[in-house]
Write a structure and sequence with these properties.
The chain is mainly beta. The protein is built from no helices and 21 strands.
Length: about 260
Amino acid sequence: MLTRRVFLGAAGANLLLAGDYPSRSARVELLWKSPDGHPNALEATNEGLWVGEQVTDMAYLLDWKSGKVIRRVQTESSNTSGIAFGAGFLWLGSNGAASRRPARPTDSATGQVHKVSATTGDTVARYQVPGGGGVHGLVWAGDSLWVTTLKLGRLTRVDIRFKEISHIPITLDRAHGLAWDGESIWCMFSNDYLIQRLDPQNGDVREVVQLKKGIDPDPHGMTMHNGVLYYSDSGFVRGGGDHAGKHAGYICRVHLG
């Protein structure tokens, strides 16, 4: 494993040195396109891979080997960005009103997290994102849920009743998919094509994984299964436009160097 310097960039600002972290390269393997073509949320379970679709707001459970649909659940989420499975429920990031389909009375005006039946899609509860603003990623870790609370610039951990337990800072913009390996939380930063493995106690960066911008699929949803990272390309760029790239809609597996 190599160690290299990682620099953080911001528009109109000088590059800032973030520090020396163990760093891995990545080789991305295309698996299959999602059923509806706009996968913006992934969550690994032993039964299969849950995929949240950004336009239809459908949740699909896919077979790990073939990508075939095991279960399909229509949800009341809107502009879905982030999905988790825990305590017997699906948790979906409802990132504001939908823009690519007809409006529904159940659409969210602001960022919410929906607690949903994994069999019927019925909404059990709705929670406002801590601090307000949008949400891009969720992951269930042990007995609690981690949420990308973008307005606060942190990852926030809540219990099953959505009471805040703790939070950690993040150092880059546009935190997206989250994954959990039992000891660390992995966070995808879409603008930077960068994944950080973070200490869940204080947010310290334990290592980074660099994807290849302009070559690898555009990163959005993310999860981990049996120690392997997976991510999805929703087909949208920041601001909601189509990027029309050849990888749009694909779910991918990451091979770490």
